[in-house]
Every structure is written in C-alpha cells, then in structure tokens.
Specification:
The structure is a single chain. This protein is an alpha/beta fold and 505 residues long. It contains 18 helices and 22 strands. It folds into 4 domains: 114 residues, Tetrapyrrole methylase, N-terminal domain (Cobalt-precorrin-4 Transmethylase, domain 1), CATH 3.40.1010; 123 residues, 2-Layer Sandwich (Methyltransferase, Cobalt-precorrin-4 Transmethylase, Domain 2); 111 residues, 3-Layer(aba) Sandwich (Rossmann fold); 129 residues, Rossmann fold (3-Layer(aba) Sandwich). The protein has a 5-stranded parallel beta sheet, sandwiched between helices. Helix 14 links the parallel strand 18 and strand 19.
Amino acid sequence: MGKKSGFCHIVGAGPGDPGLLTLRGKECLSTAQVVLYDSLCSPELLRFAPESAEFIYAGKRAGHHTLSQAEINRLLIEKSQSGLRVVRLKGGDPFLFGRGGEEAEALVDAEIPYDIVPGVSSITAGPAYAGIPVTHRNHNACFTVFTGHEDPEKPESKLDYGAIARASGTKVMLMGVERIGIIAQTLIAHGMSKDTPVALIRWATTGRQQTLEGTLNHIADRVREANFSAPAVAVFGEVVTLRNKLNWFESRPLFGKRIAVTRSRRQAGILLHALRELGADAFELPTIRIEPPRDKKAFRQLVSEAHGYDWLVFTSPNGVDAFFRVFFEIYQDAREIGGVRIAAIGPATADRIRSYRLQVDLLPDKYVAEAVVTAFQKETDVENLRILLARAEGGREVLVEELTHLGAIVDEAVAYRTVPENEDLAGGVQRFRQEGADLITFTSSSTAENFSALQLPLPERLQTASIGPITSETLRQLGFRVDIEATEHTIPGLVKAIHSHFSPP
C-alpha cells in the first residue's frame, strides 16, 4: 500500500499587521493540523488554527536560522506524507524573495499536492503604512523592486545596479538595511542623484513601525545615528516627499504606545484590535486560559434543569457560551429553556445572550454583582424564587449571599474556570521581558492574579489600566498602582479610558 498523502498550503502571512492576512489564508489555517511559521509572521495568526494543531517555528533572520531550508523542505514533505493538512506560513508573499518557489518544487518532486495562497507584500504595504504611494500620477508611473540581501561589491552579484539606477520611477528595496551605505554609494556611482529622497520603514504595518527619512547620500548616516536595524523596506524616489501629507498611520492617537493585553489567548483579539485601531503597539500577554468546570456532570445536570428556575443569571460572556454549549448538546430547541427569565451583568454578556436569540430581562446600569442585587430589588420580590447563577469557579459570593439574604433559593452552576496560561505561543511574555511596555491592561481579577504570579520584571514607568473597581481592588491588593480605571466596565469603556488618558481633550 502506498503512503497516504495530506496536503500543503504555502500561505503568505502578509507584512506584519494580522489584519492583512487574506481570507483564503485564514481559511487554510482554520483546518491546519501542522503550521510551520517564519519569524516575520505575526504569531497572532496562529490563533486562527485549531488549538490541537502542531506549531513549528522555522524562523530565519540574517545570520541565524532556526531550521535550514533543507530541513524545512523535509518537514513539509514528512508531515504531508503522514496524511496531515500542513500550512507553511511565510511573511509577505511566498513567491517574493521568500523561497516559496523552492518549497513548492520540493513538494512537486515528492508528489505532494499543494497550493499557493498569495499574501500582501511589504513592497507596497510598507510604504503605504508610511504614507508613501509607490506610484503617483504626478511623480511616476512605474516602480522597480530589488533585494538588498546581495552585497553589491561581490563580483558575482546578480543585480545590475546600473540598470536599477537608470530605471525611471520609484525603487523599492527589500532587506539590506545593514548594507544601505554601500548600496547608496553604488547607486550614486551608477548615476542616481545623491539628493534622491529615501525612506526606510522598519516593522512596517505594525504598532512597532518606525520610519526614517533622508537623501541617498546621507541615509547611511541617519541609519547609523538612529541605530536603525532590520527588518525594513526602503523606498527611493520623489514619492517619499508625499509622506508629509499622507502619513495616516503614524499620526494615530496611541501610536508609539506599547500596550500589553492580559486576557486569554482566544479573547485578546477584540481589545488588541481596538487599541491598534488607535495606533497602539498592542500585543497579547495571555495570563489565563478558559477551561471546562471540574465537575462537568454537575454543571450538565443544572443546565438540563434550567427550565425549572424563575431566573437565570449570567455574569460573563464565557459563562453564556459554556451554558449554551451544553444546553444544545442536551436539547435541540431553544424553547426547551421554558419561561425562565434572564439577567446579565454588562452589555457584552447581554449581547452574547442575544446572539442565541434570547431576550435579556434584567440588565443593571452598573456592571458589578452588587448592581444586579439592586436591580432585582427594584424589579421584583425574589423571596422563594429559584435563581440559577452560571459563572466561573471561585467567583465573588456577593450575588449568592445577597440574593439568599433576600429570600431567594440560589443554585450556583460552575460553567468554567480560569487557569494560568502556561504557553506563550505569540511570544508576548518574552517580548515583555525584553522590551517592557508603557501600559498593561487588566480585564478581570484573574488576569491580575495570574500576571502577578508570573513575577515578570516591571519597567520603571509601567502604567496599569483596569476595567473596573473589582479588578482595581485586586490590583491594589497585589501591590500594583492603578493609573487608569474604566468608567464603563466594558472593553469599549476600557479603550475609551486609555484613549482619554494618553490624548486628553
């Protein structure tokens, strides 16, 4: 019998901004069983793959290769021949200076079925995020792309610098920032004007982006003075001057602020996206992971009996999802929930309930447990009413104690538990150790407690942002100062508070 064959997708991850991954690329990741990814791929893209997938780092940087190209090719073949669906995730576009062609050839030679998923290239995306259009009707109608990876002093160089210097229009160089001095002098020697505007864009399309401007004869001095290093894309030409008018990305209100987001790996995306929309260099620092309850049988029993209660109370979107995941394993029809009325803490929890096509009957103005008790007192006499509280293990006892004191019969359904995250797939912990942050966000007491347990070195000027008073109190008990507290205890409220803190009216 022949070997069973899987499939290999060679996917362009885009230039760095995870939002620039193509829909096709995301689709391939969603079914991946093995992912081999490069250093310039945003590690956040890995969340689109199943948690059960095998993740293999195949990073390459100048002077350091985790895996050789031959080893990468061998892994692609071995994993595919094992019958697995493999995604080879490559920065930018796989066929633009990415050696994707060599990997495709290796798959063809091994008779492995594959496809190519093009990616957004830093050739155009980098300049675009720096406010530089590579073509413009008033400046040029073409552009030339070349790699700076080759040393122009090498006699066997495959690049014709004379042709590059003479070509009209914009020139875009990928890689080679460490050789910018000799490259610039070579271009000048072949006839390019020494006054040609030049821009170097480092970590293009991400919150870490830096742009350095100069002219061809002085750009190397600027690079040296600024200690500017790879990865960077270079743009040569008059279009660079348009940056003064078109610099949209680096003018955002939180640009230049490095913000660490402590949530579970699967939940960090919403807050990260909102902060990045404001220009922040936001990265995930997962401190917790959502796990099923210890006593799944007890939880399942309470869910099955939910129709017998007068009220069902949810304290978080996680509780809502955990409840209805089990509910629809038991019942096929949402009407089986009966006439139970539903209460929620916070608009995010209420929205998650509505996503299951159910109405929320009680939503207090404030998003804390005490407000639910007050809302119940205004709404109805709870004496002898049966209330089912679906929430996390180890939650505050305020609801149970206060509602019981009012005469209600309260049962607690432990829907999930938060445990410390012991994986750093996105590299956030390592980055925090190396670079620190200007601000760190906390969206629950558990994120604060588990961050504290990591015992990471704290930058001297690190500030903290809390989603609300309960989380703030936990932070203070742990010895942290609270610099920002959201007035509205939601993710949008937290983002608004951070924006106001750094960009006061």
